[in-house]
Amino acid sequence: MNWYPIELHTHTQHSDGDFTVSELVKAAKQRGFAAIACTDHNTCSGLRELHEAARREQLVGISGIEWTTYWGHMLVLNEQGYTDWRGVRPEDMDGAIAAIHANHGMVGIAHPFALSNPVNTGYHWEFRVSDWDAVDFLEVWSRDYAPSKIQSLRAMELWEQLLNRRCRMTATSGRDWHREDDKPYGHTFVGVEGKLTTESVLHAVHCGRVCLAAGPLLTMQGNAGGKCIQVGDTVCSGEMEIDLQLDSSVLENDWDRTQVLPEEICLVHNRNVILRCPLHEYQQIQVSLPAGWLRADLIGTYYGRTKQCLAFTNPIYIS
After folding, report:
1. Where are the alpha helices (DSSP H) in 150-295?
2. What pTM does this model have?
Protein backbone atom coordinates (compact mmCIF):
# COMPACT_ATOMS: atom_id res chain seq x y z
CA MET A 1 0.00 0.00 0.00
CA ASN A 2 1.24 3.50 -0.87
CA TRP A 3 0.55 6.54 1.32
CA TYR A 4 -0.25 9.89 -0.28
CA PRO A 5 -0.60 13.34 1.34
CA ILE A 6 -3.88 15.05 0.46
CA GLU A 7 -5.79 18.16 1.51
CA LEU A 8 -9.58 18.13 1.73
CA HIS A 9 -10.30 21.65 3.06
CA THR A 10 -9.32 24.70 0.99
CA HIS A 11 -10.62 28.08 -0.14
CA THR A 12 -10.04 30.38 -3.11
CA GLN A 13 -11.15 33.79 -4.36
CA HIS A 14 -14.50 32.17 -5.14
CA SER A 15 -15.20 32.59 -1.40
CA ASP A 16 -12.81 34.02 1.22
CA GLY A 17 -9.40 32.70 0.11
CA ASP A 18 -6.54 34.66 -1.42
CA PHE A 19 -5.70 32.03 -4.04
CA THR A 20 -7.07 31.82 -7.51
CA VAL A 21 -8.02 28.19 -8.12
CA SER A 22 -4.97 27.69 -10.31
CA GLU A 23 -2.72 29.23 -7.65
CA LEU A 24 -4.16 26.86 -5.05
CA VAL A 25 -3.39 23.83 -7.21
CA LYS A 26 0.15 25.06 -7.92
CA ALA A 27 0.74 25.66 -4.21
CA ALA A 28 -0.49 22.14 -3.46
CA LYS A 29 1.87 20.70 -6.06
CA GLN A 30 4.83 22.67 -4.69
CA ARG A 31 4.17 21.47 -1.16
CA GLY A 32 4.00 17.86 -2.27
CA PHE A 33 0.30 17.05 -2.07
CA ALA A 34 -0.96 14.32 -4.38
CA ALA A 35 -4.65 15.30 -4.29
CA ILE A 36 -6.60 18.38 -3.31
CA ALA A 37 -10.25 19.28 -2.85
CA CYS A 38 -11.64 22.73 -3.47
CA THR A 39 -14.26 23.48 -0.79
CA ASP A 40 -15.28 27.11 -1.08
CA HIS A 41 -18.01 28.41 1.20
CA ASN A 42 -21.47 27.65 -0.20
CA THR A 43 -20.35 27.74 -3.83
CA CYS A 44 -19.14 25.31 -6.50
CA SER A 45 -18.17 28.04 -8.97
CA GLY A 46 -14.44 27.21 -8.95
CA LEU A 47 -14.69 23.51 -9.67
CA ARG A 48 -14.32 23.59 -13.45
CA GLU A 49 -11.07 25.51 -13.09
CA LEU A 50 -9.99 23.10 -10.33
CA HIS A 51 -10.14 20.08 -12.61
CA GLU A 52 -8.45 21.90 -15.49
CA ALA A 53 -5.61 23.08 -13.21
CA ALA A 54 -5.28 19.67 -11.56
CA ARG A 55 -4.83 18.00 -14.94
CA ARG A 56 -2.11 20.51 -15.84
CA GLU A 57 -0.26 19.94 -12.57
CA GLN A 58 -0.88 16.17 -12.58
CA LEU A 59 -2.73 16.20 -9.28
CA VAL A 60 -6.03 14.57 -8.36
CA GLY A 61 -8.68 17.28 -8.08
CA ILE A 62 -11.74 16.60 -5.89
CA SER A 63 -14.96 18.57 -6.20
CA GLY A 64 -16.27 19.98 -2.96
CA ILE A 65 -18.12 22.67 -1.09
CA GLU A 66 -18.12 23.79 2.53
CA TRP A 67 -21.62 24.17 3.88
CA THR A 68 -21.32 27.35 5.93
CA THR A 69 -24.25 27.91 8.29
CA TYR A 70 -25.12 29.44 11.64
CA TRP A 71 -24.88 25.99 13.30
CA GLY A 72 -21.67 24.60 11.88
CA HIS A 73 -19.60 23.93 8.78
CA MET A 74 -19.66 20.69 6.81
CA LEU A 75 -17.44 19.55 3.94
CA VAL A 76 -19.32 17.88 1.08
CA LEU A 77 -17.11 16.02 -1.41
CA ASN A 78 -17.82 14.74 -4.91
CA GLU A 79 -21.60 15.03 -4.71
CA GLN A 80 -23.16 14.12 -8.08
CA GLY A 81 -25.92 16.67 -7.81
CA TYR A 82 -26.70 19.39 -5.32
CA THR A 83 -28.26 19.35 -1.86
CA ASP A 84 -29.30 22.85 -0.83
CA TRP A 85 -27.74 23.97 2.45
CA ARG A 86 -30.14 26.88 2.82
CA GLY A 87 -32.87 26.37 5.38
CA VAL A 88 -31.30 23.29 6.95
CA ARG A 89 -31.96 23.61 10.68
CA PRO A 90 -30.10 21.81 13.51
CA GLU A 91 -32.74 19.08 13.63
CA ASP A 92 -32.58 18.53 9.83
CA MET A 93 -29.00 17.30 9.52
CA ASP A 94 -29.74 13.57 9.31
CA GLY A 95 -31.99 14.16 6.31
CA ALA A 96 -29.45 16.44 4.66
CA ILE A 97 -26.69 13.85 5.01
CA ALA A 98 -28.97 11.18 3.58
CA ALA A 99 -29.72 13.40 0.58
CA ILE A 100 -26.00 13.98 -0.05
CA HIS A 101 -25.30 10.25 0.19
CA ALA A 102 -28.13 9.60 -2.27
CA ASN A 103 -26.15 11.80 -4.67
CA HIS A 104 -23.03 9.69 -4.02
CA GLY A 105 -21.37 12.46 -1.99
CA MET A 106 -19.34 12.29 1.21
CA VAL A 107 -19.68 14.48 4.30
CA GLY A 108 -17.22 15.55 6.95
CA ILE A 109 -17.58 17.82 9.96
CA ALA A 110 -15.18 20.74 9.74
CA HIS A 111 -13.42 22.20 12.83
CA PRO A 112 -16.19 21.00 15.21
CA PHE A 113 -14.88 22.90 18.25
CA ALA A 114 -13.62 26.11 16.63
CA LEU A 115 -14.44 29.37 18.36
CA SER A 116 -17.90 30.55 17.41
CA ASN A 117 -19.95 33.54 18.62
CA PRO A 118 -18.94 36.30 18.88
CA VAL A 119 -15.62 35.53 17.16
CA ASN A 120 -16.82 33.47 14.15
CA THR A 121 -20.54 32.87 13.93
CA GLY A 122 -21.38 29.27 13.08
CA TYR A 123 -17.87 27.79 13.34
CA HIS A 124 -18.77 25.51 16.28
CA TRP A 125 -20.73 22.35 15.37
CA GLU A 126 -24.25 22.60 16.79
CA PHE A 127 -26.24 20.47 14.34
CA ARG A 128 -27.97 17.51 15.97
CA VAL A 129 -26.83 14.16 14.56
CA SER A 130 -28.73 11.06 15.62
CA ASP A 131 -26.92 8.69 13.23
CA TRP A 132 -23.21 9.36 13.66
CA ASP A 133 -22.40 6.36 11.45
CA ALA A 134 -23.68 8.44 8.53
CA VAL A 135 -20.88 11.01 8.98
CA ASP A 136 -17.96 9.92 6.80
CA PHE A 137 -15.15 11.87 8.44
CA LEU A 138 -14.37 14.30 11.23
CA GLU A 139 -11.65 16.97 11.27
CA VAL A 140 -9.92 15.96 14.47
CA TRP A 141 -7.06 18.30 13.59
CA SER A 142 -7.80 21.68 12.04
CA ARG A 143 -5.69 24.64 10.93
CA ASP A 144 -2.24 25.67 12.17
CA TYR A 145 -0.54 24.21 15.28
CA ALA A 146 -3.36 21.64 15.37
CA PRO A 147 -1.74 18.98 17.63
CA SER A 148 -1.41 21.38 20.56
CA LYS A 149 -4.77 23.18 20.35
CA ILE A 150 -7.56 22.65 22.87
CA GLN A 151 -9.99 22.38 19.94
CA SER A 152 -8.05 19.33 18.72
CA LEU A 153 -8.14 17.70 22.14
CA ARG A 154 -11.91 18.18 22.29
CA ALA A 155 -12.34 16.80 18.77
CA MET A 156 -10.15 13.81 19.64
CA GLU A 157 -12.25 13.16 22.74
CA LEU A 158 -15.47 13.26 20.68
CA TRP A 159 -14.00 10.91 18.09
CA GLU A 160 -12.83 8.41 20.69
CA GLN A 161 -16.21 8.49 22.44
CA LEU A 162 -17.87 7.69 19.12
CA LEU A 163 -15.38 4.88 18.45
CA ASN A 164 -16.18 3.39 21.86
CA ARG A 165 -19.86 3.46 20.83
CA ARG A 166 -18.85 1.32 17.81
CA CYS A 167 -19.22 4.20 15.38
CA ARG A 168 -16.74 3.96 12.51
CA MET A 169 -15.83 7.48 11.54
CA THR A 170 -12.56 8.45 9.84
CA ALA A 171 -10.39 11.09 11.48
CA THR A 172 -8.81 13.65 9.14
CA SER A 173 -6.74 16.81 9.34
CA GLY A 174 -7.93 19.99 7.64
CA ARG A 175 -5.56 22.77 6.69
CA ASP A 176 -8.54 25.07 6.01
CA TRP A 177 -6.21 26.60 3.45
CA HIS A 178 -6.98 30.22 2.55
CA ARG A 179 -3.51 31.60 1.76
CA GLU A 180 0.17 30.74 1.92
CA ASP A 181 2.00 31.17 5.23
CA ASP A 182 4.87 29.60 7.18
CA LYS A 183 2.81 28.15 10.04
CA PRO A 184 2.95 24.42 10.84
CA TYR A 185 0.01 22.20 9.89
CA GLY A 186 -1.08 18.62 10.24
CA HIS A 187 -1.61 16.49 7.15
CA THR A 188 -3.94 13.75 5.98
CA PHE A 189 -2.41 10.70 4.29
CA VAL A 190 -4.50 8.13 2.43
CA GLY A 191 -3.47 4.55 1.84
CA VAL A 192 -4.16 3.46 -1.73
CA GLU A 193 -3.36 0.30 -3.66
CA GLY A 194 -3.15 0.91 -7.38
CA LYS A 195 -3.73 4.18 -9.19
CA LEU A 196 -4.46 7.39 -7.31
CA THR A 197 -7.80 8.77 -8.50
CA THR A 198 -10.68 10.75 -7.04
CA GLU A 199 -12.46 7.47 -6.45
CA SER A 200 -9.50 5.76 -4.76
CA VAL A 201 -8.85 8.77 -2.50
CA LEU A 202 -12.46 8.99 -1.36
CA HIS A 203 -12.67 5.21 -0.97
CA ALA A 204 -9.65 5.37 1.36
CA VAL A 205 -11.29 8.11 3.44
CA HIS A 206 -14.57 6.20 3.56
CA CYS A 207 -12.85 2.97 4.64
CA GLY A 208 -10.60 4.61 7.25
CA ARG A 209 -7.35 4.02 5.37
CA VAL A 210 -6.06 7.33 6.70
CA CYS A 211 -3.18 8.44 8.91
CA LEU A 212 -2.54 11.95 10.25
CA ALA A 213 0.89 13.50 10.70
CA ALA A 214 2.31 16.85 11.77
CA GLY A 215 5.82 15.57 11.13
CA PRO A 216 6.93 12.00 10.41
CA LEU A 217 4.27 9.65 9.07
CA LEU A 218 3.37 6.71 11.31
CA THR A 219 1.57 3.80 9.64
CA MET A 220 0.28 0.54 11.06
CA GLN A 221 -0.88 -2.75 9.64
CA GLY A 222 -1.68 -6.08 11.23
CA ASN A 223 -1.45 -9.75 10.45
CA ALA A 224 -3.85 -12.30 11.88
CA GLY A 225 -4.05 -15.88 10.69
CA GLY A 226 -1.94 -15.05 7.65
CA LYS A 227 -4.28 -12.24 6.58
CA CYS A 228 -3.00 -8.68 6.15
CA ILE A 229 -5.08 -6.17 8.13
CA GLN A 230 -5.02 -2.46 7.20
CA VAL A 231 -6.28 0.44 9.28
CA GLY A 232 -10.03 0.62 8.79
CA ASP A 233 -10.32 -3.17 8.58
CA THR A 234 -11.96 -5.51 11.09
CA VAL A 235 -10.27 -8.51 12.69
CA CYS A 236 -11.49 -11.04 15.23
CA SER A 237 -10.26 -10.64 18.80
CA GLY A 238 -7.18 -12.57 19.86
CA GLU A 239 -3.55 -12.72 18.77
CA MET A 240 -2.37 -10.23 16.17
CA GLU A 241 1.00 -9.17 14.79
CA ILE A 242 1.34 -5.41 14.41
CA ASP A 243 3.79 -3.75 11.99
CA LEU A 244 4.66 -0.11 12.72
CA GLN A 245 6.54 2.01 10.21
CA LEU A 246 7.88 5.54 10.68
CA ASP A 247 8.72 7.68 7.64
CA SER A 248 10.49 11.01 8.23
CA SER A 249 10.87 11.80 4.53
CA VAL A 250 7.25 12.84 3.91
CA LEU A 251 6.50 16.45 2.87
CA GLU A 252 10.09 17.41 3.53
CA ASN A 253 9.51 21.15 3.17
CA ASP A 254 6.30 21.33 5.20
CA TRP A 255 7.43 20.66 8.78
CA ASP A 256 10.32 21.83 10.96
CA ARG A 257 12.58 19.06 12.24
CA THR A 258 13.96 21.30 14.98
CA GLN A 259 10.47 21.83 16.44
CA VAL A 260 8.83 18.43 15.88
CA LEU A 261 10.73 15.92 18.02
CA PRO A 262 9.37 12.35 18.21
CA GLU A 263 10.07 10.37 21.38
CA GLU A 264 7.94 7.21 21.48
CA ILE A 265 5.14 5.27 19.81
CA CYS A 266 2.06 4.27 21.80
CA LEU A 267 -0.57 1.66 21.03
CA VAL A 268 -4.02 2.83 22.12
CA HIS A 269 -6.83 0.32 22.68
CA ASN A 270 -10.30 1.68 23.45
CA ARG A 271 -8.78 5.00 24.66
CA ASN A 272 -6.20 3.28 26.91
CA VAL A 273 -2.45 3.20 26.22
CA ILE A 274 -1.53 -0.47 26.34
CA LEU A 275 2.05 -0.35 25.09
CA ARG A 276 4.86 2.19 24.73
CA CYS A 277 7.49 1.47 22.09
CA PRO A 278 10.87 3.02 21.28
CA LEU A 279 11.39 4.85 18.00
CA HIS A 280 12.40 2.65 15.09
CA GLU A 281 11.80 3.04 11.38
CA TYR A 282 10.20 -0.38 11.45
CA GLN A 283 9.13 -2.68 14.26
CA GLN A 284 6.93 -5.71 14.72
CA ILE A 285 4.90 -6.33 17.88
CA GLN A 286 2.73 -9.20 19.10
CA VAL A 287 -0.50 -8.23 20.87
CA SER A 288 -3.59 -10.05 22.12
CA LEU A 289 -6.66 -7.84 22.15
CA PRO A 290 -10.31 -8.06 23.14
CA ALA A 291 -13.05 -6.36 21.11
CA GLY A 292 -12.89 -2.63 20.36
CA TRP A 293 -10.35 -0.68 18.35
CA LEU A 294 -6.58 -0.22 18.15
CA ARG A 295 -4.67 2.90 17.07
CA ALA A 296 -0.98 3.89 17.00
CA ASP A 297 0.19 7.33 18.17
CA LEU A 298 3.55 9.08 17.73
CA ILE A 299 4.28 11.12 20.87
CA GLY A 300 6.90 13.84 21.33
CA THR A 301 7.63 17.55 21.65
CA TYR A 302 5.81 19.98 19.38
CA TYR A 303 7.01 23.59 19.28
CA GLY A 304 8.11 23.47 22.91
CA ARG A 305 5.10 21.51 24.22
CA THR A 306 5.93 18.06 25.53
CA LYS A 307 3.86 14.86 25.34
CA GLN A 308 2.02 15.94 22.21
CA CYS A 309 0.52 13.63 19.59
CA LEU A 310 2.61 14.25 16.46
CA ALA A 311 0.97 11.59 14.30
CA PHE A 312 -1.64 8.88 14.63
CA THR A 313 -3.39 6.23 12.62
CA ASN A 314 -7.06 5.53 12.21
CA PRO A 315 -8.04 2.33 14.00
CA ILE A 316 -8.06 -1.33 13.23
CA TYR A 317 -11.42 -2.58 14.51
CA ILE A 318 -11.63 -5.74 16.62
CA SER A 319 -14.85 -7.75 16.72
Report:
1. 150-164, 198-207
2. 0.97
